[in-house]
Fold this protein.
Amino acid sequence: MKTLRKRIAALLLIAFALVATCAFIPAKKALAAPAGNDISYDNNVEDTGTTTTIVNEAAPENGTKAIAAAIAIGLGALGGAIGMGLAIFKSVDGISRQPEADGKIRTTLMLGLVFIETVVIYALIVTILIVFVM
């Protein structure tokens, strides 16, 4: 029984490490991007002799969006992975103790896993909103 717990814990840690790595790569690239995205236009008007300068300072905002998105999806995936791991562990434990209740336990497990997965999908939607809308 302890080896099963260790294996489940190891799989959860590996899954979290993969999700965190994939989530933080865009954040790292956005922070490492040079701030040379400023656009400047000089329009000399002959009548008044004034100069107009337009500066676009969107680079720092992209970095904070990437960090916020990485944290949102990382925490959502971590919570979902821990919840699913615990649910599967308890259902396997219950089936091993009462094999005759196999069908009821499996049905309840699948329903619970669906609800846990919807929370992870909500985290994904929030991440997409952070990146593309905000």
Notes: The CA atoms of residues 76 and 120 lie 5 Å apart.
